[in-house]
Design a protein that fits this description.
alpha/beta; TIM Barrel; eight-stranded mixed β-sheet
């Protein structure tokens, strides 16, 4: 595995070729200088969280304004359309949790409107940790996107705390409740690791499948470490183990999972 990667610079990045999302144009709503997230995941490719919070007053000054995002995205989509290479997907991701931006619902609506106008065949997506999905306005914004891809790596509170490092006051039950409210509209994403923290044992996988069943997503995506994690004591799990987990999920719930 390579070392952790640098933070994204600017509002837009890529486009990059993605196995899951095709030609993906990334939208980063968070600062260039520091990662802002409600989790501090031990496996994060961007290393440890710099601002560990959900309260916008702690980081609002670092964020791009809604009109800046709209202008940058419109210009880039026009450029790509003129070149005859519009993106397959507009993907909210970047330096932390995109839904922590206080104007996220409006920005997501702007992205959909620009897509409809300039690149109507392009899909809209987000890679989110789900920790704000308990808020109705965030759920509405997420489900207006074509592909809300939501993280769930653990089936037990203890594992969630150890692996994902939530901000104080953010409980596993609140996370699960928000994901359950989204239900069939989402794709569940899970990263499995072993070593310093291990969510790939039979016991952990059984608990994760039970949690996934309670959510009832339309699909799942399973993967392991590819780039260097924040915690170098973590190790990837073999592809055959991911395939086993995918099959166990299908047999238990009927949910089909892709392995990446």
């Amino acid at each position: 595995m390579s070392r952790t990667i640098e933070l994204q610079q600017g509002i837009l990045y890529g486009p990059v070729r993605s196995r899951r999302l095709g030609l993906s144009l990334g939208v980063n709503l968070l600062p260039d200088e520091i990662k802002v997230c409600s989790l501090n995941c031990r496996y994060c490719q961007y290393s440890w969280t710099g601002i560990h919070a959900t309260e916008p007053s702690l980081y609002a000054a670092y964020l791009p304004a809604r009109d800046q995002v709209r202008a940058a995205l419109g210009e880039k989509l026009e450029e790509m359309a003129r070149a005859g290479m519009p993106p397959d997907t507009l993907t909210f991701s970047g330096n932390g949790e995109a839904t922590l931006h206080p104007e996220f619902p409006g920005i997501a609506a702007d992205a959909a409107a620009l897509r409809d106008e300039i690149a109507p065949r392009c899909r809209t997506a987000i890679l989110s940790n789900g920790t704000t999905a308990h808020r109705p306005e965030i759920r509405d914004a997420l489900t207006a996107l074509d592909d809300p891809i939501m993280k769930l790596d653990a089936g037990r509170e203890e594992t969630f705390l150890k692996l994902n490092g939530p901000v104080r006051g953010l409980s596993y039950e609140r996370l699960l409740g928000g994901l359950r409210a989204l239900g069939r509209r989402i794709v569940l994403q899970a990263l499995f690791v072993t070593g310093a923290a291990d969510n790939s044992t039979d016991e952990e996988v059984a608990a994760w499948i039970e949690a996934a069943a309670s959510i009832g997503p339309r699909g799942a995506q399973l993967y392991t470490l590819d780039r260097g994690p924040a915690d170098r004591g973590l190790l990837p799990v073999p592809e055959r183990r991911l395939t086993e987990i995918a099959e166990r999920l299908r047999l238990a719930t009927g949910v089909e999972a892709e392995v990446f």
